[in-house]
């Protein structure tokens, strides 16, 4: 970004919009004073909070990032929520009062303070990250897609918690969110980042004003740039014809799954080629754990996960948990909830080429496959970048591209559309529809109702796991 100019007044609530990769998260990091030094990039001009350089105003700003795991660092829930206050030297007796209040606001007040953070679901971890920020009582609250990993109920809880906070304190808020309607009732200003014209190499502020005025004047531009403008029609990528359910390609028999404690018991499911199945339900229901079990990466507590005879490796059984990693490759692919968990290369292009190379493609063939996937995912310009330097949405697309490059017959995906603007979301959905139409079986964990509707996916609903 270059020549970015704006002033946010005390008490304003700003929605920061822009296409994936426009610089929204970079701007939020700058406001939070965590961009790093001169050796990590270039900065011209000034960025101040209450007249103080943003790097010196960290105690006045609270930032909730896209990935809650990057903020949760302590073993116990209460300790983690208190960590920020401790760093600000808040008196001990006041810390625990703040912690309990903030946990209540985000819907975690019913959990014990000594609950292990490792046993929280992705959505619960995101709410814990928010609670830790709220406990510090920042004057400026920065929210970088804070509800992207939450179920619909969790979205409402976090939205209402933030509403309660800003109404009670009048503090300033900046929120980044692709789904505009989530926060529309809480914001009074919209700032749009983007390239002023197609030839511009860097982003700038291309719109700034009241929400209704910006949407009226820039609605088409925002839509073209990828924003989820309220009322926008969802494309239909449903199968043109019903798939013939001759035999399942993947099935479970009396499956009990979990990490020590069973989250599901006696599960019997069949998954078919040429079909998309959506595993849905509240955070904490065990959907991500089931996905890992289906992919052969987590051993069942009881029962079996079985793959069709024609897909099993030679001299191997039908249970993927017993296979070697190379035997999983090309048969069952897994897109993890946290993209970083599957990165293994220093460059984006190399990351996507790993699967094809392991499948026996020559180096030239593997890189041609990688280049094709990067183009489909709008990641070509990052081919020589380190995967960890990408934005949250770009990391998600890279994780999908690297798995699809190996052309698995069964693809298990955990929140595949997380962090996407409408344009990249649409490309992702088209790609999933294409591999479905080629006969692959797709199983996805998602809260994205639009994704499920667009693909005409079969829904399998889960209830919250009993404590």
From TrEMBL:
Database matches in PROSITE patterns: ABC_TRANSPORTER_1 (PS00211), ABC_TRANSPORTER_2 (PS50893)
GO-annotated cellular components: ATP-binding cassette (ABC) transporter complex
A UniProt-annotated Pfam family: ABC_tran
Protein name, as recorded: ABC transporter ATP-binding protein
GO MF term (any one): ATP hydrolysis activity
Organism phylogeny: Bacteria, Bacillati, Actinomycetota, Actinomycetes, Bifidobacteriales
Keywords, in A-Z order: ATP-binding, Nucleotide-binding, Transport
Signal sequence interval, chain numbering: none
Record family assignment: Belongs to the ABC transporter superfamily.
Span of domain ABC transporter: 1-227, 244-464
